[in-house]
Amino acid sequence: MKKFPDNFMWGGATAASQIEGAWNIDGKSMTVADMKKFNNKLDRKNILSERQMTIEKIKSAIDDTSSENYPKRRGIDFYHTYKEDIKLFKEMNINTYRMSISWSRIVPNVFDEKVNKKAIDFYTNIFKELKKNDITPLVTISHFDLPYIAVKKIGGWVSKKLIEPYLFYCKTLFKNFGQYVKYWIPFNEINGALFTEWNAIGLKGLNENIQNNYQALHNTFVANARAIELGKKINDQFQFGSMVAHFETYPLTCKPEDVFENLEEKRKRVYLFHDVTSKGYYPKHIFHFFDKIKIKIDITDKELNYIKNNTVDFISISYYMSGTISKDSKDSTEGNLVRMGKNPYLEATDWGWQIDPIGIKNSISDLYDRYEKPIFISENGMGSEDALIDGKVNDSYRIEYLKKHIEQIYESINNGAVVLGYTLWTPIDIISSGTSEMSKRYGNIYVDIDDYGNGSAKRYKKESFYFLSKVFRENAI
Ligand code: BG6
Known about the structure:
Elements: E1 9-13, H1 16-19, H2 48-51, H3 55-63, H4 71-74, H5 78-91, E2 96-100, H6 103-106, H7 117-132, E3 136-142, H8 148-154, H9 163-177, E4 183-187, H10 197-201, H11 210-234, E5 239-240, E6 244-245, E7 248-251, H12 256-279, H13 284-292, H14 301-309, E8 315-318, E9 322-325, H15 357-371, E10 375-379, H16 396-414, E11 419-425, E12 445-447, E13 459-461, H17 463-474
Parallel strand pairs: 1-2, 1-11, 2-3, 3-4, 4-5, 6-8, 7-9, 8-10, 10-11
Antiparallel strand pairs: 12-13
C-alpha cells in the first residue's frame, strides 16, 4: 500500500459554466461559455474550429435565447441539485472540492459595481453545504466564463480596463466568502490566453493577432498579482495558487535539433507562466521573442512591481497528456487545446489525448525542482463515452487511467516533491469545455443527460466512484 502524506487534499474539480446551468436566471448575465454552440458534426480529433469564435457565431448566440443548442447554458443543473450532488461527493470521501464562481452571477454588469445578492446567497449555501460535509473548498475565481459584456464593451482581457472590475469582483468574493474559503486560484489555465482565447480572454481567435494574445496574458498576470495582494490584505491566511495547463513534451528523437525545439517549447509553453506567477518576473528570453516577432506589449514598471511582490503560495496544474516535439515532423495529435506530436509508445483516448501517467511524475518533479513551491494537481482525468447498462457504468478504462496517474503522483512525492493535493476532473459528468458535448464524460458519477439535454438527469455511481472512494478513504493507493 502506498500511503500519501497526512492531510493530503483529495477531491474533484468542476467549473461553474460547465456544471451550473441556470444561465439566465436570478440575475446572471451571458458569458462567453454560454455562446459556445454544440456541433453535432464534430470531428473529435480536430477541434480547432470549436475554439474559434466568429461574428456570425456571436450574433446567432445572442439571437437564440433557448438552451437547446448551447449545452453550457444547461450544464447538469447543479444550480438546483448541488445539495444532492455534494452529498454524493461526501459519499466518495472527497475532502476538497475545487469549484469556480461565476463572475456574471456575482456582478452581472461587470462595470457598475452592483453585487447580485441572489448569487451571494447561492454560493454561501454551497459553502455551508460543503462545511456541513467537511469538504474544503478550493475556489477558482475565473474559469473560462468571462461575462460577455466585458467583451462587448472593451474587448475582454486585451484591455487593461478590465483589471479594476475584476478586482472589485475579487474583493466581493474575499469579503463575502472569506469565512469559508482559504484556497483561491485567480485564473484557470492562465496560459489559455495563448491557445483558447475566446474561453480565457474573450478574443475571437485563433491567434489572429498574437500581440493581443500576449497583451491579454500580461493583463491577467497583473490582475492575478493584484488579486493576491488584495486577498492577503483582507485575510493573511488566504493561500493563492497559480493554474497552468501543463503540456508535457518530449523531443521526438534524440536529434539535437529536436531536443532544442523541445526546450524552446518548454520555455514558451510551460516555464513562462510559472516564472511570472511563481518567481515574480518575466524570463528575459520572452522580450527577445517579442522583438523577433515584432510585437510590443504595454508593460509598465508599476505592473512589474505588482508581479514581483505578489507571487503564488502554491503551483497548480491541469495534467491530461503529453506529446512530442520535432523540428520537422508534421505528425500531430489532438491535445488539451494544443496540438503536439504523436508518441509511438503511448495510447490515446477517443479524442486523441495521449495517455502518459509517467508524464505527470516528470511534470511534478520538473516544476518542484525549478520553483520549490508545493504542487497541486488541480485537474487530471479521462474523457470518454460511457455506457449506462442496467443502471451501471463499468468504466474500467477510467479506473486504470486514474490509478496509474495517482501512483505516479505518489512516486513523485517519494522522489522528494511536495504535493498538496489532487482534484480530479471531474467527480460528476459535466459539459466538455472544448467541445461543449455531454458525451465526453469525465465523471465518477454518471448523469443521465445527452448532448441535446434529453434524459432523466438521474445520477448513477460508476465503478470508478467506488475505486476512488477507497483511495480517498485510505489515503493510499
Ligand atoms: C481544462 C479546463 O482545459 O480541461 C476544463 O480547465 C476542461 O474546463 C478540461 O473541461 C477538459 O477539457 P474538455 O475540453 O475535454 O472538457
